[in-house]
Design brief:
single chain; elongated; two-stranded antiparallel ribbon; two-stranded antiparallel sheet; alpha+beta; 95 residues; 3 helices
Length: 95
């Protein structure tokens, strides 16, 4: 009995063909001054769904939570710490 093993070109995951279906991902670039370029790779379903499923289905994963906006207290605390660090550094350099 022969077994075919597939390997994802993106993540490198390997497995039997029955357990790891691969999808052909192709990008073609056409230009007026250069010959056409065609790039192709075989990706597993996880790589396809994580990278390009939003383009195909219109459903994209939720964006990560944005960093909270710093409060005025946070900004002032950071500024005062920078001034202290610069002052202490200048004193140590001058000694």
């Amino acid at each position: 009995m022969k077994t075919t093993t597939h390997k994802c070109d993106r993540c490198g995951r390997e497995g039997p063909a029955d357990d790891l279906p691969l999808y052909s991902v192709t990008v073609q670039v056409e230009g007026s001054y250069q010959p056409d370029t065609v790039l192709s790779a075989e990706w597993c379903v996880d790589c396809v769904s994580s990278k390009i499923a939003g383009w195909v289905t219109g459903v994209r994963p939720a964006p990560p939570d944005p960093k909270p906006t710093p409060t005025i207290d946070d900004v002032l605390r950071e500024f005062v710490q920078e001034v202290i660090d610069e002052t202490v550094g200048a004193r140590q350099d001058g000694e």
